[in-house]
Amino acid sequence: MRLACDTGGTFTDLVVEDGADILLFKSSTVPSDPVQGVLNALALAAAHYRQDLAAFLARAEMFVHGTTRAINAILTGQTARTAFLTSAGHPDVLVIREGGRIEPFNFTVGHPEPYVPRRLTFEVGGRIDASGTERAPLDEQGVIDIAAQMKASGIEAVGVCLLWSIVNGAHERRVGELLEQHLPGVPYTLSHQLNPSLREYRRASAAVIDASLKPLMFAYLDNLQRRLQEAGFAGRTLMATSGGGIMDARDVARAPIHSINSGPAMAPVAGRHYSARDHAGAPAIVADTGGTTFDVTLVRDNRIPWTREAWIGQRMRGHMTGFPAVDVRSIGAGGGSIAWVDEGGLLHVGPMSAGSTPGPAAYGQGGMRPTVTDCCIILGYIDPEFFLGGAMALHRDLALEALRREVADPLGLTPEEAAAAVLALSTEKMVGAIDEITVNQGFDPSSAILIGGGGAAGLNAVSVGRRLGCAQVLIPEVGAALSAAGALLSDLSADYSRIHYTTSAEFDHSGVSHVLAELAGRCRDFARGPGAGALSTETSFFVEARYAHQIWEIEVAMPDADIVGPAGLARLVDRFHATHRDIFEIEDSHSAIEFITWRARINCRLHRPPQSRLLSREDGADTRTRQVYFEATGWTDAEVVLFEAMSETAQVAGPAIVESSFTTVVIDPGAVASLSPGGGLRIDVRPG
Amino acid sequence: MDVAQDARVPEESAERGRAGVQMAIISNRLESIARKMQNTLFRTARSGVLNTAHDFSCVILTADCQLLATAESLPIHTLIGPDLMCRAVLKYHSEFRRGDCFLHNNPYEGDTHAADHCLIIPVVDESATLRFFVLAKAHQADCGNSLPTTYMGHARDVYEEGALIFSATKIQTDYKDNEDIIRMCRTRIRVPEQWWGDYLATLGAVRIGERELIALGNEMGWDTLRDYSSAWFDYSEHKMAQAIQRMPSGRIRVSSQHDPFPGVPDGIPVNVDVEIDAAQGKIVLDLTDNVDCQPCGLNLSEGCARSAAMIGVYNSLIDNSVPINSGSFRRIEVRLRENCAVGIPRHPFSTSVATTNLADRVSNPVQRAIAEIAPGFGQAEIGPIMPPAMGVISGRDPRSGQSFVNQIFLGISGGAGTPLTDGYLTYIHAGNAGLCRHDSIEVDELHHPIFVRERRLLPDTEGPGEHRGALSIYVEFGPGYDSPLEVIYTADGTVNAALGTRGGGAGGLAVAQKRAFDGAVTQLPACHAQSLLPGEFMLSTSCGGGGYGSPLDRSVASVVHDVAEGWVSRERARDVYGVEIVGRGGDLVADVEATRRRRIALGASD
């Protein structure tokens, strides 16, 4: 038995894979003690099995955890008191950043404060240049003096980023040694070891963020593992990572930046699996809709895209982690997004969200502004009596009152017209976000399937799919807990990279071979270490490259694990041209190519791909009908079908609603829903 | 400018509601198209000025040359100018087909300055009817000037400037390049491979915009899009009128002064008459009482003169709820005159530096004037620009043996205090609104044979205020290897600082210096080409931004924070902000009673 648990802002989702069965459980997150929320979810599962918790946990060999703990600590300023060590002459790396600004005429938002205040920034004498040559020796006495100052000011963690440490890491390593001697017990992070990438701001940012999380995440993971053990768990504890893989919890405690975006990064992993299972690996747009955000990723060729430009908070206004992460686009659009009309009569949805407090107006917790969820109640999509399987009663009258006052009356529309307009605009914003990762990258979304996850996904998944021209929408049976499901599906993985600059014109065959051999060796070591006992391992190689004088690399999957002779180089060059054309419409076949960063990724598969299906926990209820509203039909009778009770041959023609304990899927007129081969809900958006 | 007209509002309110929904949907689509264009240009360009500094813009215009969607383009590039350039295309060409593309950089016909190459595609429907224009404007690393810089501050005229100038020149037919034009550029532009790569990147951007607009037209119907445009302009005008109506009416003349430069030994004074007519919801900016075109590269193009004045207005609204397009522009009237340094340039006067120096001297007094008339609106002055750390560098890279020319963006700050916020640190200058990026030290040292010894903020250089201006950035850089480095820059603000408003103070001045091999530091001229030998360094200080409101009204906590961070000295906190600070290290606090006494002694109102 394997367990995956994703602690979100509102709910703690637990997925239990028990042989051929999959079960979902949701428990409220306990903000003051998130581990308690995990134990509560586990207790729900044990209760389902009518076992005590210890007996239940004793059966589990693996517990995979995703958490918002690290990101929340950053957003609420509860990380360690962290110092930043930088090259002399460059104290403002975290202040100046890479410049840039959004919203040119918005002066209500000032320049962001640095992640580490300037008063906790220390300049270290010594300088390496771009070729790796030492221009000034490291000022060791200076570092010792800084350690004394840091001790005096109660520093709890240290991030170190010196210029060009990626080419020559000697100074950074020596700083690390000196810190261990003169500031013992205080965790530190060296930028070139954590994140060997060009551009000092990104590397520095990753180093200080990582260091600042070390005391906290070490304590959290220690606490989690100890309490799981006390509760009877004797298996392996793993953590989901921002990179879409899993790592042993003790390794994440050493580099906690890996856990920052662990939840959202798991949804595409799940999406890839369900696309392979039900759609023969077709390209998939994986969209995870929660209460406040809509997170979307494009999975193509069975590969999950990644980026070095992941931000904590808003682009340009937050902090760039500079750390390779799954490329998840997030926009402020979810069930809790607020609908409003500006003074010029223009309708808006979001970016403000009602969150879980006060929540949508219909929650009756004091929310006065109408949300997307309220609109879905008004339109009859969500049954106020059956929200979360009836666990929470909703008030349609409050939703109606809020929408009327804030949207319908100002626009001169009926409430149902207004609610449908809110959903249409919300759909459009989601489509805009998807366009940015598809059309923008030269990919036609109509050739993909749309995979919806998250509690609010089903409300407009069909209309989003229609708008994109997708033929089919898939809501996996575990869709309401897609991230946790992804954590169960992901491989133990590690990513290694090295910068080695060379060009197609004067290709350094022996240098590159040496680098690739070293990366392959590190992958082998990983396979023998944490990956020991894996069912299978797979190593893939990538290079980040660009045309001469370009500055932004694109990632190219290498056709071979080594580049042998002119023919091998020619294959790689062709692959680069094709990839560039794919993304940007243009290629420059006469231009030389610059190869910068060489990467190897190893995936160790710890388990067989599950063949399980969601275990029905409901008794077959009778089919009902309910009045729902669509823009095309007006009010109409819609069939309401319980997902868990659907038979393998059932065809549910829209207008209809498919409900489960955790989610509601709206089947628009003209669309037809059925069970997918693997047991998910498949909707033919434009049946033939 | 266009005369204001009443917004047409459909009578049936439900119809209006539905129209509002469709309007929101289409405007999201168009903004997304403009963003796609920008992304392509940024990621594929070859020169640092584009692929690092982001000095380019992508916009969509209607068939009658009205600016419709800009995403987040540089204001000085896009408010006015794209419209004039599309009109130039219409003036010289009457029939358009798919596959056409035009190259335009004529500053006497709408372009900002000759360094900004624009590619313009007329978007036509199936029956070859013109429906939209897409336009991408990209600042070139080199444009064939007589010196290796795109900013020829000292040029007496367009001939001495020396750029190749294209006027609505058809560079593609049937999606194929006109090789004659490509050869001209390759022959006259330095580092032609870099230019060619940037041309391809810009072409990719406009072609993606064209493809997306055609898809949108096919999906929504071209007439629907035309009706949308008209309704969107009306909506935007309405929003602008409302924004102006929140201010009091008033009228004021404010002046500014560009520093002395070659050709203008006394500098260039700029007068702006600003009138806010709240009742009519309209603002009039009169720039006609100014000097004639001058024998230097500072003269403004018409696009820059109008845009610069309008930037001062949009900066003054503070929140960003008014859409930027030809609809909201109807509520601003900019009065210019022909043959005026801040008006409509007369050929052959040079406009080589039109986007930055003198343009900022137009934007800044406008926003300061609005602050004086309307408390809670306007801004202080943003720092004048082009210190050496924003210069154009050139030479031969001894590592590769190849020559190079590129603009660097190492350290320029300048953000002005506003009614709500302190000056944005990396604002750079009024015209680009902080959208341009700063260079990474490592990227610059990798791509150019330079060594950046130091880059840091300078304390006590902020324009003091209730909301203070940004601090100056100090940069020290020079040749990295055994080969000389040429640096050409045009620094304004070494004499005339960014002024504060409503009681706020001026920001720090710009400084250009050279450190010789023996360590001796000498002052350099403001507009200058300096060759540096190995071991010599350029010392660049950018201007600070002006402050908004009296520094005696600044929150004590903010002053304590500034002192703790090292941005403001204790002495300045006491003398200028009236805040007495006690404690040391990280444990600074204000002495409340001493501060109260100090502030009263310095003349605080309470």
Overview of the molecule:
Chain A is an alpha/beta fold and 688 residues long. Among the domains of chain A are: 2-74 and 217-262, ATPase, nucleotide binding domain (Nucleotidyltransferase, domain 5); 79-210, Rossmann fold, CATH 3.40.50; 337-412, no CATH class; 494-605, no CATH class. In chain A, the strands form nine sheets. Chain A has an eight-stranded mixed beta sheet, with helices on both faces. In chain A, strands 12-11-4-1-2-3-28 form a seven-stranded mixed beta sheet. A four-stranded parallel beta sheet of chain A has the order 6-5-9-10. In chain A, strand 20 (337-341) and strand 21 (347-353) form a beta hairpin. Chain A is globular and about 80 Å long. Chain B is of the alpha+beta class. Chain B contains 15 helices and 22 strands. In chain B, strand 12 and strand 13 (402-407) form a beta hairpin. Classes of the chains: A alpha/beta (688), B alpha+beta (606). Chains A and B meet through helix 13 and helix 17 of A and helix 1, helix 7, helix 8, helix 12 and strand 14 of B.
Give the count of helical stretches of chain B. Answer: 15
Mean pLDDT of chain A: 89
Proportion of residues in extended strands of chain A: 25-35%
DSSP helical segment count of chain A: 17
**What is the total domain count of chain B?**
3
Whole-angstrom Rg of chain A: 26 Å
Indicate the overall shape of chain A: globular
Largest interface: A-B, 73 and 98 residues
Main sheet characteristics of chain B: 7 strands, antiparallel
Molecular shape of chain B: globular
Radius of gyration of chain B: 24 Å
CATH topology of the domain at 79-210 in chain A: Rossmann fold
Number of strands of chain A: 35
Determine the structural class of chain B based on helices, strands and strand pairing. alpha+beta
**Given this structure, which CATH class of the domain at 79-210 in chain A is correct?**
Alpha Beta
Question: How is the largest sheet of chain B built, in terms of strand order?
Answer: 2-1-5-4-3-6-7
